[in-house]
Amino acid sequence: MSPASPAHGALTHGSLESLGSLTHESLEHELRDILGLHGLINWHRITQIWFAHAWGHWQLGVRGCCATCNMLLSFQLCTYGIDVEHRLWLAICQGLAAVSLFMQWWLASPYMFLIRASACVAKSLILLHLTICGRNSMFNPVDCDMVKWDDPRVPFRIMHGIMVVYWMATASSLTMQFLQPLRGVSSTTGNIQLWIRARIRATGVPVQLARGILKPILLTGTEYERAPIEAVINITRAGLICIVVWSLDNQWRTSGVVHAYSPDATPHDEDQDLSTCTSDESIKSVLDEIPELLQ
Fold first, then answer.
1. Which of 93, 137, 188, 224 is 20 to 30 A from 2 via CA?
2. What letters, b where the CB count within 10 A reaches 16 and e where it falls short, cover 72-102?
3. Cβ partners under 8 Å of residue 163, min gap 6
4. Residue 26: CB partners within 8 Å, gap ≥ 6?
5. Is 278 left (phi over 0), alpha (psi -120 to 50) or beta?
6. Cα–Cα distances in angstroms (integers) from residue 212 to residues 98, 224, 229, 240, 244, in the given order
7. 123 touches 166 (CB < 8 A)
8. Angle 24-35/279-294 helices, nearest 10 degrees?
9. Helices (H), the chain
């Protein structure tokens, strides 16, 4: 669910009072149209009762910018000739994720969850090859550099393995949010998968920091010495992940039913969970909020 922002015609107390002129039946009819098939929101009809603005949550745009920055960083590595075999494909996946985030921000299409989930699975497979075979061609099975435990690159291979799980967990969360759009949604908070995904993504911060710090410490003076730009990009990615974590957590905290009516709404003592509601119960819970907001 997407909250209204002041820049996009958020509800004021006066506009809330105008809802009182509508009958309970007409409101219910409008809400049924809005919730649509399987509880997915028809955002192009949502403005008819000022439920929210026509587009998706603005935090989708924030994460779209972060994904774009990650794509540019990957292309930057390619321009230096660093691990082009993997970084080029990772950049394509990051670009696809960025496009899907911007599209979901503009059009609020739930199918963008599946596009991002597919990109995450692709990144997991790319990193799995990087974990096992190192910086070699993904399309030549003979060209695989498996390391021994005394190799200085082992810590980095382990971190790549962690990121394989990281992206698969992210893909699973995105898929679950598509399949269960009302899971965990309450009067004040959004889909529970936003909260889960924020915690998943947070694990990427120490991994990126460890890469940036350990590359000059462990690999300098060896045949595997890395260019300084790699460490800088790893540290930069850690900062971008922090923004993504904040964005996901903020969207979870500001995409409940109450926030859809008013961005200034405060949490209720009784925070009703809509995750197990039927469509009729979800509509009723929304209608029940209106008298309280009009007081």
1. 93
2. ebbbbbbeeebbbbbbebbbbbbbbbbbbbb
3. 124, 127, 204, 207
4. none
5. beta
6. 24, 15, 10, 14, 19
7. no
8. 130
9. 13-19, 24-35, 58-79, 84-107, 112-133, 154-179, 192-202, 204-218, 228-253, 257-261, 279-294
Instruction: Count the residues in the chain.
Output: 295
- With tokens 């309450």, the residue in question is 186
**Residue 126: strand, helix, or coil:** helix
Burial class, 210, CB count within 10 angstroms (exposed 0-12 / middle 13-18 / buried 19+):
middle
The residues pairing with 15 across neighbouring beta strands, listed in sequence order, are none
In 3D, which of 217, 175, 288 has the Cα closest to residue 183?
175
Q: Are 43 and 107 in contact (CB under 8 A)?
A: yes
Q: pLDDT per position in the chain (295 positions), as tens?
A: 444 333 333 333 444 444 444 455 555 555 445 444 334 444 444 444 333 444 688 999 999 999 999 999 999 999 999 999 999 999 999 999 999 999 999 888 899 999 999 999 999 999 999 999 999 999 988 888 888 888 999 999 999 999 999 999 999 999 999 999 989 988 889 999 999 999 999 999 999 999 999 999 999 999 999 999 999 999 999 999 999 999 999 999 998 876 655 444 444 333 444 444 444 444 445 445 444 443 4
- Contact, 253 vs 189, CB < 8 A? yes
Tokens of 273: 């969970």
The whole-angstrom separation of Cα 114 and Cα 40 is: 14
Contacts of 110-113 with C-beta under 8 Å, sequence gap 24+, read 110/40, 110/178, 110/181, 111/178, 113/174, 113/175, 113/177, 113/178
